[in-house]
């Protein structure tokens, strides 16, 4: 489950709530008519979502929350309405969304919602303690809330809006570095005008430590045992049970097999939850895409960067099409309740555009003199502390370090390369320093000049979103690099954030014709021509190695030939009739063309089967079935999505 530092999770009632009466019991054959519970009839807006004994109530009526998660910032704005209507038609009465936060440039008045994983300038402070009442962190949280809450408070239920609940924090019981922190967050929300039902969410081990008085505790589908519900009962007595994260999948990392749950087990568990009158939130109903550099990373045994797709085994595919599981759950919900009679729209047609030849390129080395003046420093400086972006540092992308050496020998990082550094002697590729490789041999060949430029191109592959190490997630060179046990000195440091401004205006127009396959790092240019009505498509990069794709200045995300992801979703709204500029930044060895397909290929599936919500037994197996996917874009504004639900 992907966590946020201070995550606002709003449960947003759709235009028809699913009223499930207390008589539902264990009989799934009795369908419940709830068609009267519509905005037209819901006039008593003074009584929102409440806890009454073992039930939730809405407007005073028993209310079973049947929610699905959609991250609006992973979905093109043009498709928000489509995804919400499909969620409603499936039978869900509530949608859960997350409001990502990132105070990108503190010296500017504008507030940016950029991604849910980057911490950027917060980590400029060497003493930073994230998710605590450390002054540097609470100052940032207060600024965030000061700008966010006034924008969403008018959309609360009592004001005629769709927001019926807000989650205070996520899985803080597993982090729990500051006993005062949760109470601080609660007070910070309430005093700014959040007065809907507040919730916390933890797994079985963290329920008690993550709990707040007078805040309803919900549970995640992790380590669920009967003792979990006993703990829940011990801290809040008789209360409704909300499975806040009933997960369809887990995150996929580069170089791994895909993960998914068995659909039959999902159906069995949801039926059981209905019988027990549990509320649930299906994570994800629609996943979307980690466009740009927002994929983040996980820490299992080792650091694992996440793929670009956020398909997540959801009920809608990455590009918004129905899955067989969608149909199954729609049938289940309709057997229990009256769901809106919405016709199922046909799948959006996908285009297979003609392959684009990347006829022009420019080497990274060729453009250095056109970039902003490099930062000069005796010692390496990490991204976050780089004096760029008006002093707020660099958040993501790449960073290039140059220094001069006079000899070859053993180059050692001692763990100071975060996350992946390509090492070059002049323009010759030497090797990789990363989380698993800490040293390389720098050759000294006869006839070489006495002074050579050593270059280290470091990629920020994504920051950890949870765990005790989030305070350490500084990127680039985070300490000294040693040659023959002596620390290297006197660096020139180039910021390569690769934001839209850089692609549209900062990249010099010094393209050269491609006459043969080239070694990176380099930018490659191709032109995609489409008709008057651009359609969704998927990019396929056969023979390319590793890098980033940009379309009309927008960052589609990373690609890497180690898989599992093989195609990359390009939404139609990102295209324009006529010519579309595609730029590929290739780190290693380029292909010669960019291909397009109407099918997504996200890799070989690793099936993850959870046997029961009452125990912790897990059966693992794998197969070669592929599931199609595709998807989205990043929005900086949450209100239009929330308003669309009202």
What does this structure look like?
The model is unreliable at 1-7, 13-29, 103-117 and 607-636 (pLDDT under 50). The chain has nine helices and 38 strands. The radius of gyration is 26 Å and the shape is globular. With 646 residues, it is an alpha+beta fold. Strand 9, helix 4 (226-236) and strand 10 form a beta-alpha-beta unit. Helices cover 14% and strands 29% of the residues. It comes from Equus asinus (Donkey).
Tell me, rounded to a whole number, the average pLDDT. Answer: 84
Question: Approximately how much beta-strand content do the residues carry?
Answer: 25-35%
Residue ranges: pLDDT <50 for 5 or more in a row?
Answer: 1-7, 13-29, 103-117, 607-636
Distance between the termini: 28 Å
**Rg from C-alpha positions?**
26 Å
Biggest sheet features: 8 strands, mixed, barrel
InterPro entries: B-gal_1-like, BetaGal1-like_ABD1, BetaGal_gal-bd, Galactose-bd-like_sf, GH, Gly_Hdrlase_35_cat, Glyco_hydro_35_CS, Glycoside_Hdrlase_35
Catalytic activity: Hydrolysis of terminal non-reducing beta-D-galactose residues in beta-D-galactosides
Family: Belongs to the glycosyl hydrolase 35 family.
Enzyme class: hydrolase
């Amino acid at each position: 489950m992907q966590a946020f530092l201070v995550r606002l999770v709003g449960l947003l009632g759709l235009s028809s709530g699913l009223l499930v009466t207390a008589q539902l019991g264990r009989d799934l054959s009795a369908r419940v008519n709830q068609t009267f519970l519509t905005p037209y009839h819901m006039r008593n807006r003074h009584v929102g979502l409440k806890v009454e004994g073992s039930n939730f109530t809405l407007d005073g009526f028993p209310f079973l929350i049947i929610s699905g998660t959609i991250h609006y910032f992973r979905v093109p704005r043009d498709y928000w309405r489509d995804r919400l209507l499909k969620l409603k038609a499936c039978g869900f009465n509530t949608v859960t969304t997350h409001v990502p936060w990132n105070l990108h440039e503190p010296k500017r008045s504008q507030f940016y919602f950029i991604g849910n994983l980057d911490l950027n300038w917060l980590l400029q402070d060497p003493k930073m303690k994230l998710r605590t009442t450390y002054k540097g962190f609470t100052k940032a949280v207060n600024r965030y809330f000061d700008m966010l809450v006034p924008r969403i408070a008018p959309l609360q239920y009592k004001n005629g809006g769709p927001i019926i609940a807000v989650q205070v924090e996520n899985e803080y019981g597993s982090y729990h570095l500051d006993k005062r922190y949760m109470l601080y967050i609660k007070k910070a929300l309430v005093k700014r005008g959040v007065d809907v039902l507040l919730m916390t969410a933890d797994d079985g081990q963290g329920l008690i430590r993550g709990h707040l008085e007078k805040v309803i505790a919900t549970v995640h589908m992790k380590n669920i045992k009967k003792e979990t519900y006993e703990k829940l009962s011990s801290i809040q007595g008789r209360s409704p049970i909300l499975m806040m994260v009933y997960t369809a999948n887990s995150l996929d990392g580069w170089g791994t097999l895909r993960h998914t749950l068995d659909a039959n087990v999902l159906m069995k568990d949801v039926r059981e939850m209905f019988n027990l009158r549990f509320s649930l939130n299906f994570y994800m109903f629609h996943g979307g895409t980690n466009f740009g550099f927002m994929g983040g990373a996980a820490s299992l045994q080792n650091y694992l960067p996440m793929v670009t797709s956020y398909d997540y085994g959801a009920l809608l595919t990455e590009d918004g099409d129905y899955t067989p599981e969608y149909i199954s759950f729609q049938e289940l919900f309709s057997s229990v309740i009256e769901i809106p009679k919405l016709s199922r729209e046909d799948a959006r047609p996908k285009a297979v555009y003609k392959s684009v030849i990347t006829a022009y390129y420019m080497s990274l080395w060729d453009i250095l003199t056109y970039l902003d003046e490099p930062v000069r420093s005796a010692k390496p400086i990490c991204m976050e502390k780089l004096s760029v972006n008006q002093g707020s540092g660099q958040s993501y992308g790449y960073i290039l370090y140059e220094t001069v050496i006079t000899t070859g020998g053993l180059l050692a990082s001692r763990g100071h390369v975060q996350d992946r550094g390509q090492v070059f002697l002049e323009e010759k590729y030497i090797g990789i320093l990363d989380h698993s490789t800490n040293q390389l041999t720098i050759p000294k060949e006869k006839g070489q000049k006495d002074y050579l430029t050593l270059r280290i191109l470091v990629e920020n592959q994504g920051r950890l979103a949870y765990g005790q190490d989030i305070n350490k997630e500084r990127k680039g060179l985070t300490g000294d690099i040693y040659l023959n046990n002596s620390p290297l000195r006197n660096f020139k440091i180039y910021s390569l954030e690769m934001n839209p401004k850089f692609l549209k205006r900062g990249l010099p127009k010094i393209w050269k014709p491609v006459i043969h396959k080239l070694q990176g790092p380099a930018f490659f240019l191709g032109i995609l021509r489409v008709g008057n009505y651009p359609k969704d498509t998927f990019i396929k990069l056969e023979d390319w190695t590793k890098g980033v794709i940009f379309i009309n200045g927008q960052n589609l995300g990373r690609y890497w030939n180690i898989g599992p992801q093989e195609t990359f979703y390009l939404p139609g709204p990102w295209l324009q009739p006529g010519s579309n500029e595609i730029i590929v930044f290739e780190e290693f060895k380029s292909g010669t063309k960019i291909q397009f397909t109407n099918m997504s290929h996200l890799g070989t599936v690793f099936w993850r089967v959870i046997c029961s919500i009452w125990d912790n037994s897990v059966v693992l197996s794998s197969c070669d079935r592929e599931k199609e996917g595709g998807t989205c874009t990043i929005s900086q504004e949450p209100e239009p999505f929330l308003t669309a639900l009202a």
